[in-house]
Design a protein that fits this description.
Length: 373
């Protein structure tokens, strides 16, 4: 019997387990598939919300705390495992002119550097870029991380320190006398005094039988990967809701669609065409760059993009850490620290009130309204 059972092996579950094992807890992590292979693997890895000024302060608080921690986290994971998550601070270049005023107001409030770049400067710094508004914005401190390598490193760092059970689906959470008792899985029963649900888009299904269904729905996102050369794209670039991310080895990642398809994760020809068109409009040379991969993932969409990080009312010892929508990578470290604080009775790293299951959020239907689809 473990002290703490973590359900879900994405970046949220892995970092939650890391927080808990670092204080000496005996942790079991159960994952229905292969650790880290759902939305954590499928996303882009930008260590910032896209258009961060569109989000409520509760999301900003998690993002800013995590951004400060990321260099230390990635250095530790590299040293522990030999797997470099490739944290790269190449800046976030935003080309949408209508975002200038809200961006500058947000930056002034939060003390974030935003550089205004005119079209001449833009041509000098990004000559390969075809879209040249009169003024672009650069957030120079924004980094990206190679998220598949991040989850591999996080998993490797936990090997031998926790009981890791993959390919084992949790079918039900067990409770007795108002307290969690463990879970029933596809392989049997696991007893635990404390359970943390980190199951992303599947969280509502798991908590619904307890009468505590969070407003989390799957939102499909499709991605393209171009096999480019180093130097072809130098900035993480954002325009008209699409982004282009350069990797250190020259690969270029392009995302993403926003689709309400339930739990259908397949890619589509329409998604491929729309992403390729957006990429080529920004960087015409990508028209002649081979597409290496096309995939899709299911984001855990919650109202306003505000995750649920809280104890579950009515079931002592049961916690949830899910619903991060498009921001699981950037808010993951802070979310893991916060849920660990709550579970261990420590002073919380940030005010937990906005993330409670019954906290006020946007009306139904405004899933992830921090991003306009």
């Amino acid at each position: 019997m473990s002290d703490i059972l973590v359900i879900g092996g994405g970046i949220i579950g892995l970092l939650t387990a890391r927080e808990l094992v670092q204080v000496g807890a005996a942790v079991t992590l159960v994952e229905s598939g292969e650790t880290g292979r759902e939305s954590s693997w499928a996303g882009g890895g930008i260590v910032s919300p896209l258009y961060p000024w569109r989000y409520p302060d509760s999301v900003t608080a998690l993002a800013r705390w995590s951004q400060r921690l990321y260099p230390k986290l990635c250095a530790e994971l590299t040293a522990e495992t030999g797997i470099d998550p490739e944290l790269t601070a190449n800046g976030l270049l935003i080309l949408d002119p209508q975002e200038r005023e809200p961006a500058l107001a947000w930056a002034a409030t939060h003390g974030t550097e935003v550089q205004l770049i005119d079209s001449v400067q833009l041509h000098e710094t990004a000559p390969e870029l075809a879209v040249r508004p009169p003024t672009a914005m650069l957030l120079p401190a924004v980094a990206n991380v190679r998220n598949p390598r991040l989850v591999k490193a996080a998993r490797r760092a936990l090997e031998g320190r926790i009981a890791l059970r993959e390919q084992e689906e949790v079918c039900a959470i067990l409770a007795a006398d108002g307290r969690v008792a463990g879970v029933r899985t596809s392989r049997g029963l696991i007893q635990a005094d404390q359970v943390v649900v980190c199951t992303g888009a599947w969280t509502a299904r798991l908590l619904d039988p307890l009468g505590q269904r969070p407003d989390i729905v799957p939102v499909r996102g499709q991605m393209l990967l171009f096999r480019g050369r180093p130097g072809q794209v130098n900035y993480t670039t954002l325009w008209r809701e699409h982004y282009v991310i350069p990797r250190r080895d020259g690969r270029v990642l392009v995302g993403s669609t926003l689709e309400q398809t339930g739990f259908v994760k397949e890619t589509t020809a329409q998604g491929r065409v729309s992403l390729q068109r957006a990429a080529v409009e920004l960087y015409p040379h990508l028209a002649h760059t081979p597409i290496e991969a096309h995939w899709a993932g299911l984001r855990p969409g919650a109202p306003g993009g505000i995750p649920y990080i809280a104890p579950v009312p009515g079931t002592a010892g049961l916690y949830v850490n899910a619903g991060h929508y498009r921001n699981g990578i950037v808010t993951g470290p802070a979310s893991a620290r916060l849920v660990a604080d709550l579970l261990l009775g420590r002073d919380p790293v940030t005010d937990p009130a906005p993330y409670a299951l019954d906290a006020p959020r946007l009306p139904d239907g405004e899933v992830g309204a921090g991003h306009r689809a």
